Amino acid sequence: MALRTWATAAAAAALAASLIGANGTASAAPAATAARPDFAAQAASAGLSGSRAEELQHKVDDYLARLGGRQVAANKVEFEGGTVVVALPGEKQARDLGKADAKFADCPYENFCMFRGTYYTGDQLNLYYCRDQGLTNWTGNGSWWNRQTPGTQARLLGRNHDVVTVTAGAESWQAVYNWDPIWYVRPC
């Protein structure tokens, strides 16, 4: 019990230290948002309040930690072999704020696109390299859209890289798909 109390106190101290800036005053804005003023402007122009912009940045930071890569828009990460477009807080479908029209994020040609929500809603993961892409916390019911070159099939793999599902050839889609047994995706 003492170890848990000590760990809780240490975590609280670390959080407090992260909120105190160099001038010794507390700041509610995370350093990541302050360091990316162009992304903050994108979020603001999309109508996000400060707290909603922070919520979005937290989700983007989570994807960066899991997938690597780099943030290229307020809600978009590019990584080796793909991109992820994060749905804005309060919106059902992802839209790329890095584009001038910022409408629904279409599945790019030659990609296998996965969605956290059913009927192509929620965060969108677009894969284009022919290799196994590990998934982290991509669970529950979602959907997919296979928009690769004609006839190309994606393989949805289990924990031991065993084939769980082979999709129909491109272009194909499934509006409701259970991601729970899927640990890896091989787009080709």
Describe, in plain words, how this protein is organized in 3D.
It holds the Pfam family Inhibitor_I36. Residues 1-28 form the signal peptide. It comes from Streptomyces luteosporeus. This is Peptidase inhibitor family I36 protein. The chain has helices at 2-19, 31-34, 37-45, 50-67, and strands spanning 70-73, 76-79, 82-85, 111-117, 121-127, 133-134, 141-147, 155-157, 163-166, 172-178, 184-186. A hairpin with a 2-residue loop joins strand 1 and strand 2. The protein has one domain (51-186). It starts with a helix and ends with a strand. It is globular and about 45 Å long. The longest helix is centred in the N-terminal third of the chain and has 18 residues, at 2-19. It is α+β, with helices and mostly antiparallel strands. The protein has 4 helices and 11 strands, in the order H-H-H-H-E-E-E-E-E-E-E-E-E-E-E.
